Amino acid sequence: MADKQRAQYGAAAYANFRGTLPNPFPRTIGPRAMEYLKEVVDSGLTADMIGRFERAFSQAYGVKHCIATPGCTPALAILAASLVHCGMGPGDEIIVSPITDYGSLQGIVQQGFIPVFADTAPGTVNLSANTIEPCISPRTRAILVVHKTGLVCDMDPINELAKRHGLMVFEDACQAVFSTYKGRLAGRLGLAAGFSFDTEKTMGSDTGGCLITDDDGLAEYMRFVGHSRGAQMQSGFGRVHVVPGMALRMPSCTAAISLAQLEIIGENVAQRDRMIRLLSRLIGEVPGVTPLPIPAYQEVYSAWMFGMSIDPAQFACDAESFAAQLAEAGIPGAGTGKYYLMPAALTFLQDWARSKRYPYSTPPASREYAYSTDSCPRAWQFLQTWIRWATFCEKYTEEHCHLAAQIVRTVADRNRR
């Protein structure tokens, strides 16, 4: 691995971005952050900052349980490890959005579950009930939907489909904190949901994440397996580890910053919603360029990134070149996102399925699997012409939106056939 370039995250991944539009870093931090951090230190680490954050987030979301974690990938790993509580085991299938991040899948593959990728709905980055239904098999146990970029999947039809087939529905709402769907918050639309507070995300802390649920039994098991390492106390002996658990607890200082960020998230999300709608309208006026459609059912779009597609018939360059020109013209971080296609990006899954490595051996698998760009052809085709920038943030003003639209128009006109 010495000659390989490791992926970077957070501020380090944004360090070399340059342009005339805002960059999320340095992040805007809630004004009480230092007060809460000082409380942690002055208390000699006895302040219950983690519990305070969990209670505050639960109240803000109107949910019974919040389980704080050190990040979004650990949150979803705890969720996957807790599915044994719901009767799942190795070789069982979980239908997953194809356009997402490895964090959505890490826990699933580590628990021996088999991901099955449903294709995306036409013209968007999200799956739908129509694309999920053909993927359901006798081994399907759950659906993990991803609200990519902060756009909420059309959840009512998905939940109706799941109910007909006896399937559980979970949400990866890491990019959709406080987005809404028909008056309901993203993350309140399934049995449980995971969130991200990583530095670059909408409610960016120094890192962090959480799980929410109204299910008492599932919440207790998530704490047991995720915080208590699957250990119970036995009289006269001590800790007995009855399941292979994890120690994925949110640090107190992360909880302090996350609590301060929660206090300013309302204005953050409101600004993102206003600006993403204005930016989408302005860029939608550029011939040959189509922003991600914002569904009518989504009252609040807690946008983490801006995305648009270009019509290849109208331009003499491909999406890679178009995005590079946008970055050069002043939109920091503009680029394509082909690596978001998980059936293509998770090459180890391709190897496991090809070699029938556990859990792709029979048993526990009941059939053969293959992962590639052919697994989700519509999603792969969509990504060929899709451009996004994850530097879209609450710092955008109307002037920034007009400037971004003008940059897109200039690049489009320069490359028009």
Structure write-up:
By secondary structure, the chain is of the alpha/beta class. It has a domain of 231 residues: Type I PLP-dependent aspartate aminotransferase-like (Major domain) (Aspartate Aminotransferase, domain 2). The strands form 4 sheets. The protein has a 7-stranded mixed beta sheet, sandwiched between helices. Strands 12-13-15-14 form a 4-stranded antiparallel beta sheet. Helix 2 packs antiparallel against helix 9, helix 3 packs parallel to helix 9 and helix 11 crosses helix 15. The relative contact order is 0.16. The model has no long low-confidence stretch (mean pLDDT 96).
What are the salient characteristics of this protein?
single chain, about 425 residues, alpha/beta, Aspartate Aminotransferase, domain 2, 7-stranded mixed beta sheet, 4-stranded antiparallel beta sheet, about 15% strand, globular
Quick recap of the structure?
The chain has helices at 11-14, 33-42, 49-61, 72-81, 102-110, 129-132, 155-165, 216-226, 252-262, 265-284, 319-329, 342-345, 347-355, 377-384, 398-414, and strands spanning 65-69, 93-96, 114-117, 140-146, 168-172, 180-181, 184-185, 192-196, 209-213, 231-234, 238-241, 289-291, 306-310, 335-336, 386-389.
Write the layout of secondary structure elements.
Layout: H1 11-14, H2 33-42, H3 49-61, E1 65-69, H4 72-81, E2 93-96, H5 102-110, E3 114-117, H6 129-132, E4 140-146, H7 155-165, E5 168-172, E6 180-181, E7 184-185, E8 192-196, E9 209-213, H8 216-226, E10 231-234, E11 238-241, H9 252-262, H10 265-284, E12 289-291, E13 306-310, H11 319-329, E14 335-336, H12 342-345, H13 347-355, H14 377-384, E15 386-389, H15 398-414
